[in-house]
Amino acid sequence: FVSWTDAGLSHVHTVRASGGRSAQLTKQPGHYRSPRFSPDGDKVVFAATSGGYLTSPDWSVATGVFIVPAEGGDARMITDDGSDPQFAAAADRLFVTRYEDGKRALVSIDLAGESPRTHAAGEYLTEFDVAPDGRHLAFRENYHVYVLPLPPGGNPLELGTSVGSLQMTRASGDGGNWPHWSGDSKTLHWSLGANLYSANLDALFAVETEEGEGGYVPPASGVSLSMQRTADKPDSVVALTGATIITMAAADGGVIENGVIVTAGNRIAAVGSRDSVTIPADAEIVDVSGRTIIPGLIDAHAHGPQGADIIPQQNWSAYATLALGVTTVHDPSNDATEVFAASEMQRTGAILAPRIFSTGDIVYGARSSYFAKIDSADEAREHVRRLKAQGAISIKNYNQPRRNQRQQVTAAAREEGMLVVSEGGSLFHMDLSMVADGNSAIEHNLPQSTLYDDVLQFWSQTEVAYTPTLVVVYGGIRGEDYWYQHSNVWQHPILSRFVPPDVLRPRSVRRQMAPDSEYYHPRVAEGAKALADRGVMVSIGAHGQREGLASHWEMWNFASGGMSPVEALRTATTAPAAALGFAKDLGSIEAGKLADLVVINGNVLEDIYQSDKVEQVMLNGRLYDAATLNETVTGERRTQPFYWQR
To answer: Could you list the mean pLDDT of each consecutive 10-residue stretch along the chain, which spans 646 residues?
Structure first.
C-alpha cells in the first residue's frame, strides 16, 4: 500500500494480510501509486508519477514503473513509459498501460523494460485489469466494466463495445470503477460508490438461450463498504457583535446596524440588533464593530482540483477559496471518485475546505474518454443512478447532440430526485430548448448579449436558473481578463498567501490589455439582470478561474451590468441557495440556518468592490482568520506551511 503526507510525500509499504507492523519498501519519498505483488510474492512493482500544482513538485524527475524486492532493497526502474503496472501468471513479464496512436493500450514487457507486446487497445478505455492467470481481461469504457478472454498471442485486440468473434460481457449494471480479480482468477470485482460488486466467470460467460433465458444478469446489490463517521461541528457558542449585518433575508438585504449574531454549534441561534439579542453567558464574544457581515458565498459553478489520485491534507486551492469567503461550492464537472471523497472528508473535518457538492463526471455527448452513450431512456437512467450512487446531487447534461437524448437525461434525473445543470456550448437554440425541457439551470451565458421580451417572458415562466459564468463569458474577451488588467492580482494579500507563486504570477503579471469597450461581460450581465428582474434565479459561477477571488469578480461583473450591491450579493447567496436546493440551510443569516458567515472590512452596500476585503470566515460554526485560516475562538486548527513555503 501507499502512504501519503503533504510534507513527506508518499512511500510504498507492505503488511501481512493478517495485520501487524508494516515495512517501508521505498528509501526515497515520491509520488507513488498502484503497487502490485509479483505472482511469487517476491517482488513489488509500482508507478512513480510527478507532483506539482496541488502537491509538492519535489521528487518528480524519475517517473515510470519501478520494481523492488518485497523484503526490501533498492528500487529499480523498469520503464519510463507506462503506468498501472500488474503481473499475470508469469513473474518475468509485466503489463503496463501506455498510449499508442492516441489510444490507451495494454502492453507487456520483460523486467528489463524490453520486448514490448501490445495485447489490447481502445479509443475510449480508461482502465485495464488482467486476471492473475492471464486468461481474462477486464476493462472500463463508457463508465462500465467489461470482461473478455485474453488470447495468449496474435494481433492486439481492438476493444470497444464489441470485439468480433470473442465473447465479451458487460459485467456492471449501472456502472463501475476499479475492476480487479480475485487471487484465483475466478471472480471479477468492481465498485460503485460504497458498494463492492462481484461476479464469477461461469456467470459472466453464461450463454443465453434462443428464448432469451440463462444469460448473464449484473448483480442487483453488492457488499456495502460504507462506514460511519461523525460530522464535524464545534460545541462552542459565539457572539459576533457590533457589525452591520446584511442578512439577505429580505428584498432590501435585511440590513441590521450594530447587530449581533449568536451561533451555537454549527447553527445560527439568534440574529438581531444589539438591544434585541440576549448574549448567552458562556458565549465567546468577538467584537467586529465597523465591519460588515454577509452570508457565506455560494459558488454555483465552481470547478476546482480536489486531488491527483490522492487528496492532499491541505488543498491550497480550497484554502484560498474559503479564505475569500466562499463557504459552499457546486462543481458541475469533476472526477466522481475524487470530488465525493473530498466532500465526505470535508464534512467530517478530515480536510478544511468549503462545503463541496458536485455532479461528478459529466454526462457528455462528445466522443472522448468522458463520452456517456445515451440512446435510450434506460441508458440515461444508468448514468444518473451511477452518479447518484457515488454522491452526486446533480447531473451535468452536457452537449448531448440530440434533444431527445437531453430530455432522457432530464427525465431520468427527475425520477431520482436530482438537479440537472445543463450546458449548450454557446448554442442559442440548444439553451432555450433546455429551458423548455425543464432543466434545473443553464450553465454559461447565452451567446446573445441582448435579450428581448420574447426570451424574458419565456424564461421567467419557468423555474430554470441561470449561471452565466461571466468570468469566462462566451462571445468576447472574458470577464476575468478585465480584473487582471485593472488590478494587481498577484499582490492580493489572501491569494498571495495561499496560491503558489508559479501558479498565481504567470497569469496575473503577464496580463492582456484591451480597451474597456472591448469587454463583453457587461452586456451579458445586462441580460442576466433583465432575467433576474423577471424572477429568474441568477447565480455566480466563477468556473474555478481564480481561487475565491473570481467569485467576487462574478458579483462585480453583475454590478457592471446594472445590478445594485444587494442584487449582486443575491447572486452569491440566496439565488444559488434556492437554485441548488440549499435555501433551508444556507444563503441568508437567519436563526436555525447553518453558521456560514463572512466578516468584511468594508461597506459592501456602498461599494460592492470591497467584498474581497475578508477578515474572518465562519464555516459550519467554526471561525477562521482569513489571512491564515487558523481557527480562532472555536478551536485550535492551524494551517501548516504549504510546499512552496517550506
So the answer is: 97 95 96 96 97 95 97 96 96 96 95 96 94 97 95 86 81 97 98 98 90 88 96 98 98 98 99 97 98 99 93 98 99 97 98 99 91 95 98 96 97 98 92 97 94 97 98 95 98 98 96 95 98 99 98 99 98 99 99 99 97 99 99 98 96
Residue at 70: amino acid letter: A
Cα(313)–Cα(645) distance, integer angstroms: 15
* C-alpha–C-alpha distance, residues 495 and 320, integer Å: 6
Q: What is the pairing mode between strands 195-200 and 223-224?
A: antiparallel
Cβ contacts of 454 within 8 Å, gap of 6 or more: none
Residue (of 338, 393, 331, 397) closest to 362 by Cα position: 397
Joined grid coordinates for residue 484: 487582471
Residue whose C-alpha cell is 448579449: 449
Question: Terminal CA-to-CA distance of the chain, rounded, Å?
Answer: 27
Pairing of strands 622-625, 614-619: antiparallel
- Please name the helix (run of DSSP H) or strand (run of DSSP E) that holds residue 196, with its range, or none: strand 195-200
Q: Which domains, from first to last, does the chain contain? A: 2-224 (2.120.10.30), 296-587 (3.20.20.140)
Identify the pLDDT of residue 539.
99
Which residues touch 230 (CB under 8 Å, ≥6 apart)?
348
The residues facing 83 across adjacent strands are 97
The residue type at 104:
R
